[in-house]
Amino acid sequence: MTCLECGLSFRSLGSHINRVHQLNARAYKIRHGLPQSHPLAAADLREAQSSLALRLASEGALTYDHLPRAIEAARTAGRGVKCPEDRAKQAAIAAALPRKQLPPGAKRADGRDADRAREYQREYVRRRAKVSAHPVIETAAAGTEPATGSVDWASELSRASAAGETRGDVAARLGVTWAQVRHAADRLGVELGRASTASRGIDWDAELAAALAAGDSVGDLVARLGVKDASVRDACRHRGIRLKRAGKGIDWDNELNHAREEGETSADLIARLGVAGATLRGAERRRGVHVRRLRRKRDADTTARGIDWDVELARATADDESQVDVALRLGVDRASVYYACKRRAVVLRMASYRGSIPHPVDWDTEFARANVAGETIGGISRRLGVNRARVIGAANVRGYAFLATRPEE
């Protein structure tokens, strides 16, 4: 086969045009007007390769077990670390691309000033370059001691690990950045907590020993020391100490059922039992019983406990009260009335009609008086100051029938 680029002859042109002329088979054929089906190898070489493939297939030596690996290799080809030549080539291509820039004083598509946004981006790039060129971070990433400062990272990190300090605590104590502490800890293989806490100056050995002797849980120790949960857990992990879980010894079945019957919220149950929210949620999830969540801030001081809901809801149904009327009369939040109705399958309106009065109406007396006086529904509504729909509903419940308006009206 003769190469049309240089005139040399080879048994196969595939590797030659790729290595010497930087052309693949498709580009070579298009460049010289050859059809895509035109072979680039000599006839005897093609015949030999075909005979070899047929013989291997007949002997069972030619299998397709390699195809999954080949497909995966082809899928991930070119996604590794790029060599400097590739990066330089891509940088040159990116630099040659035309970049459209808005004129000074123009607005971007989002309405922001183009000059201000451009200056912000340039400042951001400068700050990123300044942080990446920090000597302490570069030396820590390279595996050497920082060139600036005289920080003995081995002793400082050992002290921090023994004291249960976090990365933020060490950074604040040494006056360095959080990233410097992280790089030093990763380089020396020291594990530190990540939470920011006020745990400095705490004698964790004495505190944990006292907690074990008193049978305190992690939540008790957090409340007593005024630190975060992550600080206590890190201190326990570094010393190999396990504190008991909060909530042990509580009869969750009875407590959850009692909370649902009394209309308690999750905040009420947490405050009464003295447990954490995660402990309550775990008990609910394991038993499939869920207490209503704190919907509003006023739910926390609800006085719904001790109310005979059966009697109160029966009275509200007879008086055609709404849930808001019942809540105002009993001095509780509307959510307590809603859940009490839901558990007892009692249907009450969510809120009073516009213009209605919040206190209950003695409908039997009012309807008897209206029947004697020959009042209409509109007259009863105006006299009591309630909505016509409320009068109609109360009359239907009690079996009264009134005219909507007078005939002359």
Structure report:
The chain is mainly α and 409 residues long. Among the domains are: 1-53, ROS/MUCR transcriptional regulator protein (Arc Repressor Mutant, subunit A, Orthogonal Bundle); 136-188, no CATH class; 204-239; 252-294, no CATH class; 304-353; 361-409, no CATH class. The chain is built from 22 helices and no strands. The protein has helices at residues 14-19, 25-31, 43-59, 67-75, 84-96, 114-132, 135-142, 153-163, 167-174, 178-188, 204-214, 218-225, 229-239, 252-262, 266-273, 277-287, 309-318, 323-330, 334-343, 363-373, 377-384, 388-398. The radius of gyration is 41 Å and the shape is extended. Residues 133-148, 296-304 and 353-358 have low confidence and may be disordered.
